[in-house]
Design a protein that fits this description.
The chain is α/β, with parallel strands linked by helices. Helix content is 67%, strand content 8%. The chain has eleven helices and seven strands. The strands form two sheets. Strands 5-4-1-6-7 form a five-stranded parallel sheet, with helices on both faces. The protein has a two-stranded antiparallel sheet with strand order 2-3. Helix 9 links the parallel strand 6 and strand 7. The longest helix is centred in the first third of the chain and has 41 residues. It is globular. The relative contact order is 0.10.
C-alpha cells in the first residue's frame, strides 16, 4: 500500500465518514466541528501537495494566505481580540444601554489582559517548581477553553447552515422578552419571520404545512405570555399559516422544548417527538445550545437561525458559550482535573529530579 493511498484513507476518507455521520446524526456535538476542520485541513494540504507536483511556485502561492493568517493570529491574535472586545463594548453600551449581561465583552477583554500579565509574572519566577506547575495548569485550562470555544463557533455555523431535509413536522419558535411587557421585540420578530419563511418554503416546494408551536410563558415583568404576543404579531402581519399551537407556560429553553412536546401530544395525540422532523427557530447565536438542550432531553432537532445585529453577536455568543459550558460541565471538569493531575505530576518530577 503506497503512502498516497494511506494518506487518502486516513486524511480524507476517515474524516469525511466521521463528519458525515456527526453532521447527520449528532449535529450538535462539537465533534462535528472538529471533523469538519480536520477534513478541510486535509483537503487543503492534499491540494498543496498535488499542485506542488506541477509547480512549486504556485503551490507556495496557494499555501501562503493560510500560513500568513495563522502567523498573524499567533502573533497578534490576543491583542486584536482584546481591542475588538473593547470596541464592541463601547458600541454595545451606546446602543443597548448598561446591563450586567452587556458587560461580557469588557469582562472577557480584562480576563485576557489578566492572563497575559499573569504569564509575565509567572515567567519571572520560572525557577520555582510550584510556580511552573501553576503556570502549566492555568495555561492548559486556558488553551482548552479557547479550543472548545473555537469548536463551538464552527459547530454553531454548521448547525445553522446544514440543510433541512424532507418534510418538517413541527417548527418550535422560542420566545424572548417583550417590549412594555406585551409586544414582540425585533429580535423575537426575526425568529417568527424565519419560522414563517420555512413554513412557506415547505408549503410551496413540498406541498406540506408544518405545525408551528409558539413557545414562551409570562415573565414577572410581562403583561401577557410571550406565546400570545407572538400570535398577536402573526395576526398583525396577516401571515397565512396552518395549525399554530400556543405553549404559554415555559420559563426557559428546556421548558420551551418539553412543554412544546406536551402540547403536540395533547393536540395531535403523538407519544413524543421521536421520528418527527423537528426544527427549532431562534436567533443564530442561540440555535446550537437550544439543539444541544433538545438532544439532552431526547429530542433530535435541527435549527433555523434568524440574523442578529452584528454588534450584539459577541455578547450573545459569549453568553451562549458560557451556557454551553454549564450544560456540559461534567466533561469540562474532567478535562480540568486531567490538567491538574498533569501539572501535579510535573511538579513531583521537578521536586524529585530538579533541573537546577
Amino acid at each position: 500500500m503506497g503512502l498516497g493511498l494511506i494518506w487518502f484513507i486516513f486524511a480524507i476518507v476517515i474524516p469525511l465518514v466521521c463528519f458525515s455521520y456527526w453532521i447527520y446524526f449528532r449535529p450538535t456535538s462539537l465533534w462535528t466541528g472538529f471533523f469538519f476542520l480536520a477534513l478541510s485541513g486535509s483537503i487543503y494540504i492534499t491540494l498543496i501537495f498535488e499542485i506542488e507536483k506541477y509547480s512549486t511556485q504556485f503551490a507556495l502561492f496557494f499555501a501562503m494566505p493560510v500560513a500568513i493568517l495563522l502567523a498573524l493570529i499567533g502573533i497578534f491574535g490576543m491583542f486584536t481580540g482584546v481591542v475588538a472586545l473593547f470596541w464592541n463594548e463601547r458600541v454595545l453600551l451606546k446602543r443597548e444601554g448598561f446591563s450586567l449581561s452587556n458587560l461580557l465583552p469588557l469582562l472577557v477583554a480584562l480576563g485576557l489582559i489578566a492572563f497575559q500579565i499573569m504569564l509575565v509574572v509567572l515567567a519571572y519566577y520560572n525557577h520555582n517548581p510550584y510556580v511552573i506547575a501553576l503556570s502549566s495548569f492555568i495555561t492548559l485550562c486556558f488553551s482548552y477553553v479557547v479550543a472548545i470555544f473555537f469548536l463551538y463557533f464552527v459547530t454553531s455555523i454548521l448547525y445553522n447552515h446544514f440543510p433541512r431535509l424532507g418534510k418538517v413536522d413541527y417548527i418550535i419558535v422560542l420566545g424572548a422578552g417583550l417590549i412594555e411587557g406585551e409586544r414582540v421585540t425585533p429580535l423575537l420578530a426575526s425568529r417568527i419571520d424565519v419560522a414563517v419563511k420555512l413554513f412557506n418554503k415547505q408549503k410551496n416546494k413540498k406541498n406540506h404545512e408544518p405545525v408551528i408551536i409558539l413557545s414562551g410563558g409570562q415573565g414577572q415583568d410581562e403583561k401577557i405570555p410571550e406565546a400570545h404576543a407572538m400570535m398577536n404579531y402573526i395576526t398583525e402581519k396577516d401571515y397565512e399559516l396552518g395549525h399554530v399551537y400556543l405553549e404559554d407556560k415555559s420559563r426557559n429553553t428546556r421548558e420551551n422544548l418539553e412543554f412544546s412536546e406536551a402540547i403536540a401530544y395533547q393536540k395531535d395525540n403523538i407519544k413524543n417527538f421521536n421520528r418527527k422532523n423537528i426544527v427549532i427557530a431562534s436567533n443564530n447565536y442561540h440555535i446550537l445550545r437550544a439543539g444541544k438542550l433538545a438532544s439532552h432531553i431526547g429530542i433530535q432537532a435541527r435549527g433555523i437561525g434568524s440574523k442578529t445585529k452584528f454588534y450584539y453577536l459577541p455578547t450573545a455568543f459569549i453568553r451562549e458559550y458560557i451556557g454551553y459550558l454549564a450544560l456540559t460541565k461534567k466533561r469540562h471538569l474532567i478535562m480540568f482535573g486531567l490538567a491538574l493531575a498533569f501539572s501535579i505530576g510535573m511538579l513531583v518530577l521537578n521536586l524529585i529530579f530538579p533541573t537546577y
